[in-house]
Each structure stands twice: as C-alpha cells, then as structure tokens.
Amino acid sequence: MLCIGYQLREGIVSALLPQRRFLHTYSRGDQQIVQVHNSVYSGYSWLTPRTKKSTVMSSSLHRYYAAALFFALNLCACAPSGTEAPASTESIQVSPHRHIESPDWRDQIVYFVMIDRFNDGDASNNDQGTGEYDPNDPAKFSGGDLAGVIRQIDYIKGLGATALWMTPPVANQWWDGMIQYGGYHGYWAENFKAIDAHFGQLQDYQRLAELLHRQDMYLIHDVVVNHTGNFFDYNGTYDAADPTQHFFINDDSTPVKAPTQPPFHLNDIRNPEHREAGIYHWTPIIRDFGDIEQEKNWQLSNLDDLNTDNPVVRRALRDSYGYWIKEVGVDAFRIDTAFYVYPEFFHDFMYSDDPEAPGVMRVAEQTGRKQFHLFGEGFGIDRAFDDSVTRKIDGYMRDETGRKLLPGMVNFPLYGTIQDVFIRGRPTSEMRYRIETMMKAHESPHLMSTFVDNHDVERFLASGDITGFKQALTLIMTLPGIPTIYYGTEQLLTEQRAAMFAGGYQSGGKDRFDRQAPMYKFLQEVIALRKHYPALRRGTPKLVADNPAAPGALAYLMEYPQQTLLVVFNTADQPTLMSNVQWQTTQALRLKEVFSSAGTRHELTLKPGQVLNRELAAREFSVWEVLPTTDKPEVAQSSTSVTLSIDPLPSTSYVGDVVLEGSIKGLNTAKLLINGNLADAISVQADSNGRWQYRLDTSSMINPNQTHRVVLWSEKTGVASSAQEFTVKRQWQPILQISDAAGDDKGPFARYRYPLDASWGTSKGLDIQNVSVFTSGSALKVSVKMAELVAAWNPVNGFDHLVLTMFIEMPERDAGARALPFQNAELPDNMRWHYRLRTHGWSNALFSAKGAGPENEGTPVSPGAEIEVDRSAKTITVSIPAKSLGNPPSLSGVKLYLNSWDYGEGYRPLGEQPTSHDFGGGRADEPRWMDQTKVIVLP
Ligand SMILES: [Ca+2]
Ligand SMILES: [Ca+2]
Ligand SMILES: [Ca+2]
Ligand SMILES: [Ca+2]
C-alpha cells in the first residue's frame, strides 16, 4: 500500500538514503605503516619499523598469545617520537582480561561511539599533516581517539551500558578529493588489519578491551566486508563486457592511492595480474537499488566493491577480522552494509573450516567465546503495515533451508516506525503491527539491535521533541532486542556527528560528559528498569491497546515465566482514553506502577475478567508490574448499575456523516470519544428512553484505509462502552484540471540545468505536466503528473530527485507569507500563502505560515497530508484534511501554486555549473525552482 502520510515534525527519514549515500560516498583514513609503505608525504618522519605483514599474516591460532606479546612490545619500543607510548604493564603482557566468556547478549545495553567525535585523549595524533584534520569541518578528522574512549569508560558504564560499539578503528583513506570528504568515520578502509594513526595503536585498542572486560563490559568491533574506500571509479558509460573502459584510479586520495593490505591492493583492472586476481567487482555506482545485481556487485556510492564470491577475498576477510578477536579480544562484530553482500557469504565468514583463516566463530570459540555475537546492518525501513524489508533482513539471519546465518541484524524497520509514531504522530496501530510482525518474522528478535539514533540518520531531536525521545527510548528498553544508545543521546545532541569533546566539530566549545544531565539520569533510570526485570529483556510482547487512526494509546504486556509487565504510552499531544484493555479472565490482578513519566507510583486492582479503562495524560508513559492478587478490587459503587453502549455500525465505508446512537443507563450524560481523543470529547445526553444519537462530521477522515474507533465514556464511574469501528471513503469531486507546458523545466530564466549524476536519468523529472484538483467538503486533494518519476535511492514515498512544494492561500484570511522558504523567491501575482506542503521522497510536511520567511519554513500542522504515488502514471497525489486547513466553510476562491526542485539536506544548491547533485546555470541567490504552475484559483 502506498499511503504514507507524514505529519508534524517531519524530517528524519527524509535524510536516510541521501545521507547514507553522503557518508558512504565520502571516507578515508590510514595508519602509520601505510604511510611508511607509501611515503605520500615526503618530509613526514615518524616511522614504525614493524611491517604489518609479519604480524598480521603470521598469526596462526596456536601462536596468538605469543604474537600479541611480541606485537605489543614491538609497538612500545618503536613508538614514533613525539607520541607518548602508554607505559602500563598490563598492556605489555597479555592480560587475563583479554579473552572472556560471551555474555547472554539479550541482556546487554550497547553504547555506540563514533571514535573521531567522541573524545580526544591524545592531541599529538590529531593532525597527520595531510590537511585531513580540521575540527571546524564536518568532512574532516576532529581528533577523537581510543585513548579518549578509554578515559570515558566510567561515563559509559555509569549510564548502565554493558557493551561498547565503536565505528571501525582501522586505517582509512583520509581524504577523497574526488568528492571532498574524509574517512574520519572509519568506513573507508585501506587496511582492515591496522589501526588508523588518528586513533592510536594496537596497544590502545588492546588496553580498551581489557579495561572494559575488567568492568564486565564487552567490546563490539565494526566490520566492513563489502567495500574499501574510493580508490578507483568510472567516468562515461560503463561497459560490462570491457570494464577497463572509462576506468580510472582516484589520484585525489590521501594518504594512499590504493589499499596497502594484500590482496586488496590489487585494484587496477588494467593490470593483467590484478584482473586475474579478481579481488574487486570493477563496477560503477549503484543506480537502481531495486536491481539485485547492482545492489550486490556494484559500488555503494563510490566505494570500491569487493568480490565477496572470490575465495581469496573471503579468506582475507576472515583473516582480517579473526585478527581482532585474537589480538584484541573483541566480543562481537557489527557488520556494515550487509545488504550489499549476498547472505550466503556470511556462512563462510562465520563457519569456514579453512585452517589458515578459519571462520570467525571458530576463532572466537578458541578464545573461549561460545556465543560470539554478530549483527548486520540492513539499511531499509518498511512502509506502514508492510514487511518486505523485515523479510529481507530475516534472510540474513537464516536462509531458505533454515540454516543459521548472522545471529542478529539491526532492527531498522522498528526504527522507521519509531520515527513515524513518536515524531510524526502516526497511529499507534502502526507500532502494534511492527512489534507483532518482528516477533512473527524473526526467530530471535531478542538478538537484534534496536535503536532510536545512529550515525547514518538525522538525530531524533533534530525534528522530534524530548518527550517523544523519552518515549522512543522507553520503548526500546521494554521490548525484545539489544538497545543501542548512540553517543550524545544522553546530552541531547541534535547534530548527527557533533563532537562530545571541546576541541571537536560542533562541540559548542565544551566537553559534554555531564553525568548530572537530565537525560543521562533518565537513561540511567530506564536502563536500570530493564536490568531489574528479565521480562523486559527476555519476555514476549503481547499488544493490548492501540489506536488505529490517530496517535494515542499504545500498550503491551511483556510476558516471561513468573513475571509480567505492562508498558503504556500515550503518543498524542492531548489526553486519551485507553479503554477495554483485557488479557486476564480468571484471576484478580494487582497493577503496580514501577516507572512513569510523571514520577507517580499508582496501584490498581482488577477483578477477574474486568477490563482496564484509564485516562492517560498527554504524552504520558508508564511501566507496571502485573501481579496476581487475592485483594478485593475497589469498584466504584455507582458503576455497578451503569451501562453505556453504541449500536453496531455497518461494515461498509461511509461517504459522509456517520450517525451514531446507543443507550445510556444509570446516568444522564456520557462522553463520546473519537479515536480516544479526550480533548475533543462530545457530550451526549440520554433521552427519556435512555437513548442518545449524534451526527459525526467525517470531513477530516481522508484516509480510506484507516479504521476509526468510537467509545462512550463516563469519567466519573470509569465505565466505557464497547468500541465501534468504521471507515470513511470520501467521494472526491474533480473541480479543476490545468496543464503545464512541456519542456519548460529550465527555471525562471530558461537557463537552469539539471545536476549531472547518472541517477537523474533523462533529466525531465522536474517538468510538471498536469495538475488536477479534487475536493470533498473542505478537504483538498491535488494530483500532479510529472513528465518522469525517478526512484533511484529506494525512497520511502516511492519517488525521489524531486521536491514538490505547494502553496495555499485561503480566501478572506489575513496575514500569510509571500516568501518561498529556502527557494530565494516570492509567490507570483501578489499571492500570499497560509499553508505550504513540501513533499519529497522521504517526507511530506505541512506548514502554516506562522513564523515563515525566506529562511523559515513556518509552523508544522497536524494532522498532515496523506500521499499516494503512482510510479507508472507518474503522478503524486496529496490529500489534506479540512481540519488542517482550519475547517473553512468552502474551498471556493482558494489559490494554489506549485513548483519543482530537488531536496538533499535542504533545497539543493544552485551554481553557475551543475555538479553531481547541484543545479547549474544560475547564481546561488537566484530562485530555486525548475518548473512552476500558474496561480490556480479554485472555482
Ligand atoms: Ca587525538
Ligand atoms: Ca570507487
Ligand atoms: Ca557488494
Ligand atoms: Ca512543465
């Protein structure tokens, strides 16, 4: 189904693929050895005489302790001048803390650190002298390192975390001039077996592992098997029959121009020896993520794709990663970009019996780790009520025959629904579906990583609020999965990769390791709750309340032998009624509140079979322990004689008003609640026969797929009627159709040009062809037909490379704005806008003009618009409920104006020359639209 309406506070997912692309498109890094081998920077004098080949390739299993000792001593003796060599004796000897038994991973809480942005413990390694270091530049190294992480172990442990996951510490391509971005993040390896010079030395990593183990904490190593950095590429048309055509080596790479680790250095297809070795796929950049051949074998962004079918590559990767288990004592792997490698690869990676380079599970077993953990990244989210990405993710944990692959995967679909429900105010039924689906689809959901933020997505707080953030964190702390806290969550960071230390990028000039910060304390409390109750870590969720058409109540039990907890949220901005919750019929129950947003500790008793009805304050959340009891429930006297009812409704959809009726006994009035909303409760009165009736206006119920729920409620007695449900399929009247000239997608001066990246296709994607307008009462539906509709980056809304912005002027309404925010233009024909809808592949955001200006988008409006996309018909259709337009009496005289552009991190730049994703043919300050409609006036 293609009904994805994004509301209120949109944003996060909008950044998903483009940002992913952004970051994996740009990376690099390196290590001392590398520089020695390549001497790219003459005059750089620090050297380490060890060759990584001698230590790296020779480390067979039975010798790994000895090798580690040798390595550590060697490192210590040969530390570059000017670098202080840690002098601790425990890092010179192989510590008994290096190898420890695996924990039960279901019980772990992970803290995730981007090394370069977390803490700087050694300023002398920050600037390696190639221009790669600049803490004011988000694309460059900021100075964080392993020594810095070591200094903050207590801070991490203090939160309650039990495991540390860090971005890859390995030697990276430091700077890729081709795309003007650096490998400070660690995902652009040039050597999978060496520590990057910016981060420290092997010894530091060993020391970190040992110190964590001493604290009963575990270390997760971030693994890339899909690609190296960007050392080669293609220009011009790719010819699969002759991949040497248009191939070039990326000369604009520092500190090395090719990986230094064998066999990954064999990367030039024009060299017969390299070609014969077949280490790489030598393919261009993925253009169509729906094409499995491209997905698995082409370059993700510019990153050189390894030939992971080649046994030589497989052996080198097993060797590279077994190394970190043996030499450092890492306890788990997180696998980057798993979707870009066939699932079958991982069976070999884990279980190969190659004596030279055994599978990593074999290596782990030999270090005493019987439950070595691996979890893969499958970057993709599902649409509401869809599970296709969920199933794809499951394909990495077991194959069709049931053979086990990776023990866990990152739970991206749950993340996507967290965003929708706790930021965008989507109905809580979407979360119910997601939780039930993940439990059904996966064999071991308890071993999947759950998260609210990570390094590849916009932070929650960039568009969500703190209460929603706390709800989202409470959700992952009370559901199956291994909760992962991205660094800075506890300090309310809003920038994706801001530094926690004063000297780093966007630090705000101060260290931010504040253990008194309110969010640090909140996390301590909710993590302690999870640790206290095994049901929260190991139990099975059973959904007992949701809201199918609006934000509101969400509740689930976590059931575990001898222990049951009830978790309750109200996701709405207004009070809501959670009604008719029932899971127990034979026993009386005592509910003890053990955690709540309000700090309350209520207790309730339910008699056998009694339903739970409870008013929830706006955005309230709580956790209750559920205990059997023999206590007598306190039932209000008056309620025994009160009954409320709503007559059953027909199962067909309504097209207009809904007449609701029923009976009230024992009272005169009751409240009629639509979708649980207490703020807009309707008071209904019993007639002399105890009957009541109400005619409900459905003009704002524009999504025909949503089920609306009505309940009659008596606050005083705590009695609720059974719920009745209905759907509304509005009749839309076509009222206007205009066509727009073909081929006029050239901007206001007919001279703009499209960006150059191949994913733009034939570059007609911004040519508006046709606009059709429909109304239903005062609800508005606009359908826009484009000359072409592209979906290059697997966008959630089904199209990308296009932002449509629609401006709406309400007749006879004051104020409004003239400016087109961030588009360097004003509305034509003296039009003013009161509402503005910005729609692209990842977002569909409705704003009012309040506060709007050239650099201000206005104020988010809820509920937002629904969107439907028909790729084959090249149409994008948006529907706006009457309520969101201020319930105007009619839409006659309403003015509309639309234009087209593209959106990355904001409206894309315009310059004299087009670049891969920037528009050309204009000045930066000229209007940013390619095509526009005239001002459309509704009759
Ligand atoms: Ca440093
Ligand atoms: Ca490349
Ligand atoms: Ca691949
Ligand atoms: Ca046009």
Automatic annotation (TrEMBL):
SUPFAM superfamilies: (Trans)glycosidases, CBD9-like. SMART domains: Aamy. Its cofactor is Ca(2+). GO terms for molecular function: hydrolase activity, acting on glycosyl bonds; metal ion binding. Keywords: Glycosidase, Hydrolase, Metal-binding, Signal. GO terms for biological process: carbohydrate metabolic process. InterPro entries: GH (IPR017853), GH13_cat_dom (IPR006047), Glucodextran_C (IPR019248). Pfam families: Alpha-amylase (PF00128), Glucodextran_C (PF09985). Residues 112-530 form the Glycosyl hydrolase family 13 catalytic domain. PANTHER family: ALPHA-AMYLASE 1 (PTHR10357:SF215), ALPHA-AMYLASE FAMILY MEMBER (PTHR10357). This is Glycosidase. It comes from Permianibacter aggregans.
